[in-house]
Amino acid sequence: MISVENLTKRFGRVTAVDNLSFEVKAGEIVGFLGPNGAGKTTTMRVLSCFLPATGGKVTIGGYDVFRESIEIRKRTGYLPENVPLYMDMRVIEYLNFRAVLKGLAGRKKRQRVAEVIETCGLAEVKRSVIGRLSKGFKQRVGLADSLVHEPELLILDEPTIGLDPNQIRHIRDLIKGFGRNHTVLLSSHILPEVEMICDRVLIMNKGKIVASGTPGTLVGVLRGNPRVIAEISGAPDKVQASLEKIPGVVKVSFESVGEWNRYTCDCLKDADVKPEIFRVISSNGWLMRVLVAEKRNLEDVFVEVTMEETES
Amino acid sequence: MRNFFAIWRRELAACFLSPIAYVTMVFFLIAANSTFIVGAIKNVGNSVFLVSLLFASIIMWLTVLVSIVSMRLFAEEIRSGTIEMLMTAPVTEAEVVLGKYAGAMTFVLFVIAPAVASIYIFAAMGPGQDIVDSGALTGGCVIIFLIAAFCMSLGLVVSLLTRSQIIAAISCLCLIWLMLFLGNIVSAIPFAPPKLVTFLSLLSHVEDFARGSIDTRPVVLYLSATAFMLFTAVRILESRRWK
What pLDDT, in 10s, does the model give residues A153-208? Predict the structure, then answer.
């Protein structure tokens, strides 16, 4: 659906996007992550045909963003970052106006506008002036606008920013439902959300993609050792010494939590040391109340790949 | 074409849904007519063509009106970011420019209509002069339309170049006034041919037209200048896509 080859975008001397290449297949929900200023919004603006690229080739559904931008704009729905809307219009007027611009007319237009008002939960405010709506409603008006012409591709720049948890959940379900038969590219700062919605994640930093893959595989390729945490009562030195003898355990550190001591074991990758730890503890007659593998998530991946770039 | 009408309607709605349109209309009427009355009183005893005086005072205030109406056309969209929404919809640059231009022109013509129509009131008030010269009225309307059309296209280009509405309005007003007095400026040059001076002088066009003599040369001048400005605006807007 989207194919980006060596995309570069410079603003004067500042390189916002640097030789970026990636592909998005039809039907995928892809999340764009990255710290502020990583080039996510710029990339999305190029994809939505708003900004021209300095170099490289971008095609969407086989159309070139530079030469055939009208065709692409007919097929994509785009929600910009701060959801700019005409503040003096009413919701329904605005959606009608946008529907006409996007080529809908007559009964089809009325039907689609009614549908997006329904799906985005705008029924109660459809006669209100947009400028007086809360941030969440404005966001939903923007989303309704990007959906109104049933686009094949949806580009959403931080769709859930400024929403309350209920609204976030609603929008998330909406995007997930939409993603079943459409392609979605979204950017977000909220990592658990991306983990939940997206099939694939692209992490950008300083205009480059620093990691890409499913949330699961990304966590898998994390550098550093996986950790197991155990809380055990018993003489600390002895426990630590016997834990360190277990094959697969690299290093053990401990801190005291009242009667119980918390041991953090750095383990080798692919080694499951938990049964062995349990066996050692029980054979020594110590008591154990917690034994867990530390769960690592996308946040760790994000910090790891973006921080190390910044440091180097 | 449908996009053109949609944008036109949206521009008109932006003007008429707020009370600003009606307030502007009233103030424009007061400003233009009081300028006319002051001019008429000052010229008591001289032989002045009153219709051309009325149209000249309307054009004086038209310059201000056009600067203010045109300033928001693009500057506001650029500032608030709605240009991003507009330009990522499947519309061509020409549709956007022409739609906005048509909307603003409709609004301006609507606002100046009462001031032009007040000519009938003045005629009714003048003893024994209750007949309005239809040739003079038509000529005056034509020149007002032409000047408004050109100034608006100039304002539209200026508005595209800045994100600040104030800067857009001031630069547009300066440019229009420069043009208004171009004849006077050129005539100050000692060896300037007088024919050139009259051809460049906007106010002398008004005088001719308000006498009922419709000269095709200014018509061609204003229409082609307007077309050129609109073409420039389309190109500037397009350049955002490849710059």
Answer: 999 988 887 778 887 888 888 888 877 778 999 888 777 778 888 888 888 888 88
Ranges of beta strands (E only) in chain A are 2-11, 14-24, 29-33, 55-60, 63-64, 76-79, 153-157, 183-187, 200-205, 208-213, 227-233, 249-257, 260-267, 287-293
**A170-209 burial, b if ≥16 CB within 10 A, otherwise e?**
bbbebbeebbeebbbbbbbebbebbbebbebbbbbbbbbb
Contacts of A103 in chain B (CB under 8 A): 90
Helix (H), strand (E) at residue A276: helix A274-284
Distance between B21 CA and the closest CA of chain A, angstroms: 14
For chain B, the 3-state helix, strand and coil shares in percent, each to the nearest 5, are: 85, 0, 15
Our CA-based measurement puts residue B10 at a distance from the nearest CA of chain A, in whole angstroms, of 7
Q: Which among B10, B78, B83, B95 is the top mutation candidate for probing chain A, defined by the most A β-carbons within 10 Å of its own β-carbon?
A: B10
Report the distance separating Cα B79 and Cα B82, nearest Å.
8
User: Å from B1 to nearest chain A CA?
Assistant: 10
Q: What is the mean pLDDT of residues B79-85?
A: 90
Place of tokens 């037209």: B209
Q: How many CA atoms lie within 13 A of B102 on its CB side?
A: 15
CB contact under 8 A, B91 and A101: yes
**Disruptive mutation site among B88, B100, B240, B243 for chain A (greatest number of A CBs within 10 Å):** B88
How far apart are the two ends of chain B, measured CA to CA in Å?
27
Exposed, middle or buried, B156 (CB in 10 Å: 0-12/13-18/19+)?
buried
d(CA B50, CA B39): 9
Which sign, positive or negative, has the C-alpha torsion A179, A185, A189, A191? positive
pLDDT at residue B167 in the model:
92
